[in-house]
Design a protein that fits this description.
Cytochrome p450; signal; iron; alpha+beta; globular; Cyt_P450_CS; three-stranded antiparallel beta sheet
């Protein structure tokens, strides 16, 4: 929670920044009132001559304290004095951020941009427009900067900055080799009210405990049985699409994929029937409210919801709190039922269950049986809420873009359809069928490369660190403690440095090797590294493929989501044909320059937690001959 002490610190920090800006000269303007200066980059140096007088000789005496003058005329005389205040002291490495850590990052940016101080991080500095942060397609803006500045670069919005990393060698360092130096940072702050201390926002120390408790639930026997549950949950969608085909209705397939993904999460994780394909309920509305609020917060620069009293005053927050209570009450009821009917079994017995004959095969049941009756309800609630939000969003987005790309690439659609018809015929798929449907699995993998969910991974540095260089055009950046970082999965997945023809939809690329000697320390992509697995992962591309993150904090439900998407896509394509409907070509430029390149039927992209279409994936649906 945002304590009164933190509120006071925030106000002091904001006041300091406000005072500072009043002393900072505006960058020079051209005749057209456009900024023409080049921000300081890695080549910036202090303007100090060796034969100049010492700083002591130039010092001012105020209140018996020597105040060293700033090295630049652009900063006020008291600038260095501020940083001697006790509240501005830096926290120890590896500990949670202090006010001093946050202020130090602000200080670094202000001094570099306006004071002509040397760069402390050796990273090119890109001055960001606020639209790049607040727009619905921030990852597209970050790609444009990447093409100009390489990786890493620092994106500044006034005193606030983000270090943007777009290289697999650097990403591997942050996510795997030096992961103890980083936490989720602003992401944890954004998600705390919704997900509590669930796996995604949890601190590194708490995450270790939580992961050990949850990972056993995703064991092989359970995953194999879940494929049958996926098929069961798709039945209402089949019925609905049949009706719409008979009536020649338009259908927003993005919305339908969201509904079936929610139903699957409800049944597999909670043993709860949302029934969202066919009905609406307060619980379903509450789920979508949580999703919308999570996305809204992820794209909002100022966390106004943390201001004391905001939940009472702001209508949006009042509504959100009401919906969150509905979700909390529902989850607590389901947890209570599971605990009341707990069966005492050890982990070996749980993993060897005959799930085909278990009345409640849900993940909640497994976790309660494994952890015991004394398990904390709040802990379970946080874990389940995390899976509800994260699991539902990802699968729906992947299915939307997979159908979109297959319709744009009819030759790939034919390959997939032929395989589905041959393997499953008229029946529902099972786990063994999915193992045989290589082309469908490759389509899911390629969709995740082109439209990674999420397109950005967020980290914050806890202990000062140095990034490896990677590509020859990169810099070996220093990450100062407190610096927020965007790991741009989208940039890595769409860069010709790491993928051949990255904007081309080519599912079979995962069957071919790709290397680039210009990327020092990168082993390239090798299909042999995912031999024996159902899907390629970060190891097969040496961290140039990160659909579920990588390293210690990789998504625990990756295989679950991949199986769910593969099963659902096979079921739908076996039974239905689709044609684009209502997709109008947008005018070139303007706000619509973020379409995937070369679209014949642009739907546009926007992002929150995942990449969505702008206005839905509207299709005309027809029944196939079975």
């Amino acid at each position: 929670m945002f304590s009164p002490v933190n509120s006071i610190h925030l106000l002091i920090l904001l006041a300091l920044c406000d005072i500072t800006w009043s002393f900072v000269p505006s960058p020079p303007l051209s005749r057209n009132s456009q900024r023409t200066f080049t921000p300081n980059t890695r080549s910036t140096r202090l303007r100090v001559l060796e034969d100049e007088k010492t700083d002591v000789e130039n010092a001012l005496k105020i209140n018996d304290k020597d105040i060293v003058k700033s090295e630049s005329e652009g900063l006020p005389w008291w600038w260095n004095l501020v940083w001697d205040l006790d509240m501005m002291s830096l926290g120890p490495p590896g500990t949670p951020m202090t006010l001093g850590d946050t202020a130090n990052v602000f200080r670094t940016n202000i001094e570099q941009i306006y004071g002509d101080y040397p760069s402390k991080d050796n990273c090119p500095l890109a001055e960001g427009a606020l639209d790049d942060l607040a727009s619905g397609t921030m990852f597209i803006g970050l790609q444009r900067y990447f093409n100009s500045y390489s990786s890493p670069y620092k994106l500044c919005f006034g005193p606030k900055s983000f270090l943007v990393v777009s290289d697999p060698v650097q990403a591997k360092h942050v996510l795997l080799d030096a992961n103890v130096n980083y936490d989720k940072g602003i992401l944890a702050e954004i998600l705390e009210e919704v997900m509590g201390q669930g796996l995604i926002p949890a601190s590194p120390e708490l995450w270790k405990v939580r992961r050990k408790q949850i990972v056993p639930g995703f064991h092989k026997a359970w995953l194999e049985h879940m494929v049958g549950v996926f098929s069961y949950c798709n039945q209402p969608l089949i019925t609905k699409l049949n009706e719409m085909a008979e009536n020649n209705e338009r259908v927003d397939m993005e919305e339908k994929f969201c509904s079936v993904a929610l139903d699957i999460i409800g049944k597999t994780v909670f043993n709860y029937d949302f029934g969202s394909v066919t009905k609406e309920s307060p619980v379903i509305k509450a789920v979508y409210s949580a999703l919308v609020e999570t996305e809204h917060r992820s794209m909002t620069p100022a966390p106004y919801w943390k201001i004391p009293g905001a939940n009472t005053v702001v209508p949006r927050l009042r509504k959100f709190r009401s919906n969150l209570k509905i979700l909390d009450d529902t989850l607590n009821e389901l947890i209570g039922i599971a605990k009341d009917t707990r069966q005492v079994e050890d982990i070996e017995e749980l993993e060897s269950r005959d799930y085909a004959n278990v009345k409640d095969p849900s993940l909640l049941r497994f976790l309660v049986d494994m952890r015991g009756a004394d398990i904390d309800n709040k802990q379970l609630r946080d874990d389940l809420m995390t899976m509800l939000i994260a699991g539902h969003e990802t699968t729906a987005a992947v299915l939307t873009w997979a159908l979109f790309e297959l319709k744009r690439n009819p030759e790939e659609m034919k390959k997939v359809r032929d395989e589905i018809d041959e393997v499953i015929g008229d029946r529902m798929p099972n786990y063994e069928d999915i193992k045989k449907m290589l082309k469908v699995r490759l389509v899911i993998a390629e969709t995740l490369r082109m439209y990674p969910e999420p397109p950005l991974l967020i980290r914050r540095c806890r202990t000062e660190d140095t990034l490896p260089k990677g590509h020859k055009d990169n810099s070996e950046g220093t990450v100062i403690r407190g610096m927020d970082m965007f790991l741009s999965v989208y940039n890595i997945h769409r860069s010709p440095r790491y993928w051949l023809e990255p904007d081309k939809f080519d599912p079979e690329r995962f069957l071919r090797k790709f290397e680039n000697p210009d990327v020092e320390g990168w082993r390239g992509f090798d299909p042999a590294r995912w031999e024996g697995r159902l899907y390629p992962n970060e190891g097969s591309a040496d961290f140039a493929y990160l659909p579920f993150g990588g390293g210690a904090r990789k998504c625990v439900g990756d295989e679950f989501a991949l199986l769910e998407a593969t099963c659902t896509l096979a079921i739908i394509l076996r039974r239905f044909d689709f044609d684009f409907d209502g997709q109008e070509s947008e005018e070139k430029g303007g706000k619509y320059d973020d379409h995937p390149q070369g679209l014949d039927h642009p739907v546009g992209m926007r992002t929150g937690a995942t990449i969505h279409t702008r206005k839905g994936l509207w299709m005309k649906v027809k029944k196939r001959d079975m």
